[in-house]
Amino acid sequence: MARTKKKEKAGKTNANNEWRRGKEETRELLLTAALDLFAQKGYRGTSVRDLAAAAGVTTGGFYSNFKSKREIYIAIIDKITNTIEDIVGELTRETIDVMKTRGGIQMEYELLRAPIQRMFDEASQHEALLNILLREGLGNDPEFQREIDRVWERFILVLSAALQMYIDAGFAKPYDTELVARAVVPMSIAMGIYDARTKGSRREDIVIVLASMLHGGASQWAAWQDITNSMKGRSGGS
User: Fold this and answer.
1) Which element (helix H / strand E) includes 76?
2) Is the dihedral of CA 81, 82, 86, 89 positive or negative?
3) Sequential DSSP letters for 142-208
4) CA 39 – CA 145 distance, rounded (Å)
5) pTM of the predicted protein model
6) Read out DSSP for 1-60?
7) Confidence grade of residue 133 (pLDDT, cut at 50, 70, 90)
8) What's the mean pLDDT when you consider all of the chain?
9) pLDDT tens across 142-179, in order?
10) Alpha carbon separation from 5 to 1, 11, 15 (Å, rounded)
11) How far apart are CA 203 and CA 210, in angstroms?
């Protein structure tokens, strides 16, 4: 009886708090609570009631912001993806500006390391969610798989766009940036998982490997394309 009254009182308190807060604030509280609980208990181990209680809202308040637990999970993934996209775009522009002031004529390896380092630093703050995504988001759930594929494509597009910015700025010869991005993104994600599991102990080495592969691979591919096109030109002319 006492427990029931305590729950009723907590429910009334949460309802009063919701009335005072705006919808956007309530949504942010729910997202923060979901991030913590999914990290602690996993997606399937967390209920809507758990999320609402942790955020200090009623279950009705939860459903006025999100249709389901799945929707808030996807919203968290989108939020992190947006953050990574912003970081890549911002650091790409900063790097190009620095290269222009130095009068560089090609992409510099040392400057390429900075955005990669920043991305790993950001990803390390969401280690638990990354593990949840891999453990529970993948598998036999086609809806989750579609969302993961969508996020995957977003990462490929943002990296492809960043590489194209270097080409447009004149610091690299033209090449298929999308194809390079499709090769680099899965490797980067795999390295991100390894970085999380090793608690960042080898992050510097990981950054060096990725920067070296991206810098050298793109440059060598562009050079190889020049050679191939030259050979085709000679063959066609003979």
Assistant:
1) helix 69-102
2) positive
3) HHHHHHHHHHHHHHHHHHHHHHHHHHHTTSS----HHHHHHHHHHHHHHHHHHHHHTTTTTHHHHHH
4) 20
5) 0.69
6) -HHHHHHHHHHHHHHHHHHHS-HHHHHHHHHHHHHHHHHHH-STT--HHHHHHHHT--HH
7) low
8) 78
9) 767 788 788 889 999 998 998 898 888 887 778 889 99
10) 6, 10, 15
11) 11
Map tokens 């900075």 to a residue: 114
Which pLDDT band holds residue 235 (cuts at 50, 70, 90)? low
Which two three-digit tokens encode residue 82?
């947006």
User: What is the CB neighbour count within 10 angstroms for residue 71?
Assistant: 11
Q: What is the DSSP string of 125-136?
A: TTHHHHHHIIII
| Cβ-based neighbours of 82, under 8 Å, separated by 6 or more | none
Report d(CA 217, CA 114) in Å as an integer.
18
Packing angle between helix 48-55 and helix 23-41, nearest 10 degrees?
120
Which tens digit of pLDDT belongs to each residue from 40-78?
A: 888 888 999 999 999 999 999 999 999 999 899 888 888
**Number of Cβ within a 10 Å radius of residue 45:** 11
Spell out the residues 6+ positions from residue 69 whose beta carbon is closer than 8 angstroms to its own: 43, 46, 47, 48, 51
Query: Per-residue pLDDT for 219 more than 80?
Result: no
Q: Say if residue 183's pLDDT is above 80.
A: yes
- The H or E element containing residue 61 is helix 59-63
Contacts of 77 (CB under 8 A, 6+ apart): 129, 133, 147, 151
